[in-house]
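call fold(seq) -> tokens
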Amino acid sequence: MTDDVTDESLTPESTDAAPEIPLSERIEAILFIVDEPIGLVALAAAVGSPVPAVRQTLEALVEDYDGVGTGPRRGFELREVGGGWRLYVREDLDAVVAEFVGGQAPARLSQAALETLAVIAYKQPVTRSQVASIRAVNVDSVVRTLLARGLITELFADSETGALNYGTTDALLQHLGINSLDELPPISPLLDDGADGFDEGTIR
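ret:
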């Protein structure tokens, strides 16, 4: 008769759970991918933490990015805009970013970008969701491209929904060789019946 020998390699044993990712890191991960300010409740749901803890962490991140304490000030800042939170390049670094973007090799805009730009030009101020509704496709990446090219800009955040409203820039006028948006051709003749404008929804 042999003694019962327990082989630890075969015996299930409790292992320490993987360390939880710090709340600040989870919040930063979401903030880096959002295209528009994200509300406190939505952010709390995204990171799976209570609203008070998320707000406290956001306030700590604001101070951290601003260089309050021992760390350096960052080239970006965390701001609450229109009831939501988002990362922004600091205003005093706009010239650096503009020079970088302007120095990039020019590339032709895709058809999707041109169509989105046309909708914004004629409907401004207009939100991303309104543009998406008109074009019947997701326009997130296209809007980012147009922002990076300096052809459109964020005008203001809706007071009720927090959605950003977009409009065109002087750079677009320069590219088109016109002095104002009033010189854009009437849109109606370009549509099927020449009367509906953009108000009926999708451009066919």
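Strands lie at 38-39, 76-81, 84-89, 126-127, 152-157, 164-168.
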